[in-house]
Amino acid sequence: xxxxxxxxxxxxxxxxxxxxxxxxxxxxxxxxxxxxxxxxxxxxxxxxxxxxxxxxxxxxxxxxxxxxxxxxxxxxxxxxxxxxxxxxxxxxxxxxxxxxxxxxxxxxxxxxxxxxxxxxxxxxxxxxxxxxxxxxxxxxxxxxxxxxxxxxxxxxxxxxxxxxxxxxxxxxxxxxxxxxxxxxxxxxxxxxxxxxxxxxxxxxxxxxxxxxxxxxxxxxxxxxxxxxxxxxxxxxxxxxxxxxxxxxxxxxxxxxxxxxxxxxxxxxxxxxxxxxxxxxxxxxxxxxxxx
Length: 291
Known about the structure:
Layout: H1 5-35, H2 43-58, H3 64-91, H4 97-120, E1 135-138, E2 141-144, H5 145-167, H6 169-177, H7 181-186, H8 191-216, H9 224-238, H10 243-264, H11 266-269, H12 272-283
Antiparallel strand pairs: 1-2
């Protein structure tokens, strides 16, 4: 096996960009699962829907990132309706809501996958933009613009969500709703409406993350199965609901996966997320930034 410090440096640098991307596609799940305790296993499927939405708008000559922003209000409404149905059907009854909700969201994911196959077929789809396929050259080093843009958007999105949850009343209410609903009611807030709003925010983030996904690589309807392990790994590593922790966990996963890919090959890289998840659950179950 050939090894050099230059190769190691390139692997770490690529891992940093990849890690920012992993953080971006996990932020919505960090809100839904980490803060609201909703078993949202349909999160990666909605991520793929965002990618196909950007692909469709691309047919009108709209840039994928612009498409992501345009789709966010639609995804916000979808998220609010989806949570309301989940609440009225499972959570309000209080009996086995977690298990039944898990089956519900698995069903949503499978329905989305089938609809995408029927509507678009099984072939891969990709977006078109001037920066896709181009690279920034720094001497002998080449940094793909697609990953640089995804990493930049991920950083901005993480900072924006962190400030929203820590500096606004609604953001603090969302963080508090999973801890003490009774105290939240005493402050004049409706926990159900707060959760519905939070789930809408979590789903709207998927529109932008899905647009970044189709920038990074072509997509196909069953691609959500690849990201379900990675996104849950990032959220658990982060500490269930921590935005900054989600970024740190994404970077850890990205760097580790890049190093394993470089040193041992692609066949081992797919097992990294589950390996990190098992280690973290055994050593520090509360996650990197959990209390």
